[in-house]
Backbone:
């Protein structure tokens, strides 16, 4: 893959800096929102324009990044952005200590499925079964996810599945903000390489991390959110459905809406 020019490097540094701001709050960087472009002929009526976690930083900050070659954010983003395949990105993730949690000796859980999928499902973090097998959603919750997808005519091989975190946290606790921040640039590149038309976030943490907004899952459901020139939908995590069967009905309504939109966008298969 050819070396990136400074403009590309700046854009990716902008992404990381603003992802940090969304997770940790404001720091001394003024910003203006990136405009989202959508084809009005294909825009669903229930798209809600959410605040995108990726924004532009001001000009003098760009110059500072270029002047300081040791700046951590550009160096990290340059390494990630130069990965041209999922295999190459996975190799980088295997060596990335910043992706690990405080649970020792865990396996990398990178992602699984069709590398050219038009639908990508993103969960929160691997559990024990996922850690043992190195594959996301293989436990009881994963089996339920497979059934849900099968009900709307998706096989596991049709879609691509990943998590916010790529290593299991202790006691299956929620991902910490700093863990999410460290993992996000790798996930963003993973999304870019798969290049899906639609993203389905399962669970509140997955959705709030990508959308950069702290809202209830209930408020984020039943609509499509613009994200990286794609559309993102939110529903309940399969593990939550196992504990709360009353949420199965709204989840079913969500995935039916997802399938309808997928077909309208020309998703394959």
Residues:
């Amino acid at each position: 893959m050819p070396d990136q020019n400074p403009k590309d490097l700046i854009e990716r540094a902008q992404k990381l800096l603003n992802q940090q701001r969304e997770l940790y709050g404001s720091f001394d960087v003024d910003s203006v929102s990136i405009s989202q472009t959508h084809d009005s002929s294909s825009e669903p009526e229930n798209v809600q324009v959410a605040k995108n976690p990726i924004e532009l930083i001001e000009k003098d900050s760009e110059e500072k990044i270029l002047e300081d070659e040791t700046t951590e954010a550009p160096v990290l983003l340059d390494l990630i952005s130069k990965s041209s395949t999922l295999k190459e990105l996975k190799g980088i993730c295997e060596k990335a200590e910043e992706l690990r949690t405080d649970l020792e000796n865990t396996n990398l859980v990178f992602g699984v499925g069709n590398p050219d999928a038009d639908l990508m499902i993103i969960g929160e973090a691997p559990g024990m079964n996922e850690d043992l097998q190195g594959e996301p959603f293989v436990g009881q919750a994963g089996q339920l996810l497979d059934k849900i997808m099968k009900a709307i005519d998706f096989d596991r091989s049709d879609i691509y599945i990943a998590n916010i975190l790529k290593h299991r946290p202790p006691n299956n606790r929620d991902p910490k903000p700093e863990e999410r921040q460290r993992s996000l640039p790798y996930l963003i590149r993973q999304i870019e390489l798969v290049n899906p038309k639609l993203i389905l976030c399962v669970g509140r943490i997955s959705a709030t991390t990508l959308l950069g907004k702290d809202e209830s899952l209930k408020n984020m459901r039943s609509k499509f959110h613009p994200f990286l020139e794609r559309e993102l939908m939110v529903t309940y995590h399969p593990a939550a459905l196992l504990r709360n069967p009353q949420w199965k009905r709204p989840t079913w309504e969500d995935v039916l809406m997802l399938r309808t939109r997928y077909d309208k966008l020309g998703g394959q298969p």
About this structure: The two ends are 29 Å apart (CA to CA). Strands lie at 31-33, 55-57, 112-113, 119-123, 160-163, 198-202, 225-227, 230-235.
